[in-house]
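We keep the chain:
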Amino acid sequence: MTTSTRGTARVPAVLVLEDGRTFRGRAYGAVGETFGEAVFSTGMTGYQETLTDPSYDRQIVVATAPQIGNTGWNDEDDESARIWVSGYVVRDPARVPSNWRAKRSLDDELERQGVVGISGIDTRALTRHLRERGSMRAGIFSGEALAPEADLLARVQAQPQMKGASLYEEVATKEAYVVPAVGEKRFTVAAIDLGIKGMTPHRMAERGIEVHVLPATATAEDVYAVDPDGVFFSNGPGDPATADGPVALMTAVLERRTPLFGICFGNQILGRALGFGTYKLKYGHRGINQPVQDRTTGKVEVTAHNHGFAVDAPLDKVSETKFGRAEVSHVCLNDNVVEGLQLLDQPAFSVQYHPEAAAGPHDAAYLFDRFVSLMEGQRA
């Protein structure tokens, strides 16, 4: 529930975590109440891309960068048709945006879309708390939504957990659409939208790929009706353990040995299709500065992440699966979390992070070229 109120910077607000910790500040964006899983993102730039990333559905995002909103909001950088975060937490909002592309302030856009936020709190203390205790349910309350803390805490604790949440169908397109190739068309790809970001099909289109974006409920018949040279599985929100439909579809694609590429949620779907488990990380990886090693080349990349779940696959050996041999191809150097998988006996691979990275970094853009190489090899 939200109510639009001008002058929100003077309206008191409170953030309540499910373990009882509270932070008091001022309303930012819309005034009202909101609930979600409190997570932190370490990106110092790209807040517009973060806020419009469907993978953040039902999450209250804490910005660790101390000042947010300097470049305002423009009409070009959205990764989807709307803001998906449940709430936004910042320390020091910019008073006046300053960028030649800005059309309005971040505060105004949050208010326009009914996104409840809070500013003026110690986001460093909040981030340390989430690192120690883990991501958890939270609520932001301002204006008429304010009430005794005990009542607010009870409402937060009544919210559903992220573990076990099936969200990908909520954010996916309901109708198929096509992103045409830029220049000469070289390949056709069927992209399964589990929460796809706008830059992803664009990165493929730049490489001469005509991208058919299909709903999360697409069947194998839908996929092969477009006569694809390759199949792509996108990022998305929620617990991959609930995604039985996408796992069944990926299994059908693997059985036909069609070149396959998955990112983020798509990586977890590939893990499940290969017989590996998934699990929830304590506080996840979110930001644009995560170091990952490509174990196939030894190269270290700085990468963009947004995931709270990971694949449970062995790092020290090649695994035998029903689709042949598989191995962990990428690993996070901070905590040894699996960041990529590849099959050794057929053309399929995935990564846990975001190689399209509209806000940067672009170290991992080569992965789209690797996908092209798989399709070239299959065609040959």
Observations:
- Residues 1-6 have pLDDT under 50 and may be disordered.
